[in-house]
Amino acid sequence: MHIKKQRLLTPGPTPLYPPALHAMMASDLHHRTEDFRRVYQAAIADLKEVMGTSYDVVPLVASGSGAMEASVSNLFSRGDKVIVCSAGKFGERWVDITKGHGLSPVVIKKEYGDVVTPAEVEAALKDNPDARGVFVQASETSTGAAHDVESMGKIIAKTNAIFVVDAITGLGTMPLKIEEWGLDVVIGGSQKAFMIPPGLAFLSISPKAWAFEATSDLPHFYFNLKKEAKNAAAGESSWTPATSLILALAEALKYIKSIGMDKLVENAQLLARATRQAAAALGLEPFAATSPGSSVTAIKAPAGMDSGKIVKGFRERFGMIIANGQGSMKGQIFRIAHLGYFDFADLFAVVGSLELILAANGYPVQFGKGVSAVQEVYAEATGIRQPVNA
Predict the structure, then answer these.
(1) How do beta strands 81-86 and 7-8 pair?
(2) Which of 40, 261, 305, 343 stands 20 to 30 A from 219 (CA)?
(3) For 369, phi and psi rounded to 5 degrees?
């Protein structure tokens, strides 16, 4: 209790993969050399492999929001009508980005914790046959909800619109079959399931989306996707790259390939399921009950308790950093992440700590009940059977 290790348990940044951190120490590498070109090309090839696509994948020196903006500024024109799914803080970001670039968004607005349904997207496309694009979050991290991008993609693929998916926390936490489902632009970020520090974004771009680039009239300079894709094919970036992060990404991708992207997704899904069962065992309610995702679990604070007390309790008692609610949900929910370099030992500690924090704030808790729920999920997944007393 006197020594507290800091544990990062937020949905971004996430815990770092140690070999990736060590790889960053070799970053005194000039980016216009053959040594770096080999690393850069290999990292892009591995990104395509783990994302499961043959489409171009373009890295950018930016947070994920930079790639979100680039998808708009490179592929659309001023006045274009687009459909924006907004069911949380990051859906609202799509609204702001499209409006900020002079597009005309038709917003399908849902309450925090809810999701936009494929049927609502289909109806919006029928009402707006001139729509040029549809924007959505695969995983809405502010609420813990996940959208049905598979069904949406198959609907949108039958139209002239392109489907732009913020998968910044979706990649590595949920299946995303880019080409099979008709996902034209899929955006990712380094500080999520890829287990390295913030500062890199990347996006896959379909041939259908590239055709939009040819007619775009919006200004862009630094985030020039066509230029980046051309240079990437030769092993270079248009501008000075984040060499340390590319080295880290290359190492993290080796690890992801060694376990398999499907296993990385399964890991997140199991942790999310165990967290939901632990919350239920403790009498707590999940926030996104109808369509929960696996990148993060949002849990309602007990009645009359500000979720900030729980966040503060984790930090001050155990050195653990979890996330409060965002926007209108601040003080009402707390969020525990599952993406990237998380394992069940982390979750045992988190749930055990949560029980103590709740008790310290006057909430009735039977110690071990939540942890037991996590153990049951682990035991079921690994084939462990609890011995029966004679």
Answers:
(1) unpaired
(2) 40
(3) -70, -45
Q: Count CB-CB contacts under 10 A for residue 335.
A: 25
Residue from 63, 82, 62 nearest 72 by CA: 82
The neighbouring-strand residues paired with 81 are 104
H-type helices in 194-260, by residue range?
Answer: 207-213, 225-233, 243-259
Q: What are phi and psi of 338, to 5 degrees?
A: -135, 5
Contact 299, 284 (CB under 8 A): yes
Q: What digits encode the pLDDT tens for the residues 41-100?
A: 999 999 999 999 999 999 999 999 999 999 999 999 999 999 999 999 999 999 999 999
Q: How far apart are CA 318 and CA 332, in angstroms?
A: 21
Closest CA to 52 of 204, 209, 251, 207: 204
Percent of the chain surpassing pLDDT 70: 100
- 292 residue type, one letter: P
Task: Cite the beta strand spans of the chain per DSSP E.
Answer: 7-8, 56-61, 81-86, 104-109, 133-137, 139-140, 145-146, 162-166, 185-189, 200-205, 296-300, 320-321, 323-324, 333-337
Domains and their CATH numbers in the chain: 18-259 (3.40.640.10), 260-382 (3.90.1150.10)
Cα–Cα distance between 178 and 205 in angstroms, integer?
10
Residue in 355, 362, 377, 378 with CA at minimum distance from that of residue 284: 355
**Residue-level pLDDT at 29:** 87
Q: Please give the pLDDT value at position 328.
A: 85
What would the pLDDT profile of 256-270 be if each residue is shown by its tens digit?
999 999 999 999 999
The pTM (predicted TM-score) of the whole model is 0.96
Q: β-strand 296-300 against 333-337: which pairing, if any?
A: antiparallel
The count of other CB atoms within 10 Å of the CB of residue 153 is 24
The predicted model gives 335-356 an average pLDDT of 97
Contact predicate 94/68, CB 8 Å: yes
Tokens of 135: 């924007």
Whether 317 contacts 311, CB under 8 Å: no
- List of long-range contacts for 324-330, beta carbons under 8 Å, 24+ apart: 325/142, 325/298, 326/88, 326/89, 326/142, 327/88, 327/89, 327/92, 327/112, 327/142, 328/112, 329/112, 329/113, 329/142, 329/143, 329/287, 329/298
98, two tokens: 């499209």
